[in-house]
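Re: the 42-residue chain
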Amino acid sequence: MGDGESGIKIIPNYLFSIPNSPFSITHSQLPITHYQLPILND
């Protein structure tokens, strides 16, 4: 599980704001939005 957390933390937040980015799909389907996705809170 630690590996998944590390992968998320090294991903720049600006990548999440890219609609065509695979990261935008990842954070939409994984229950990680509550601890490492400040953009969603904004």
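The mean pLDDT is 54.
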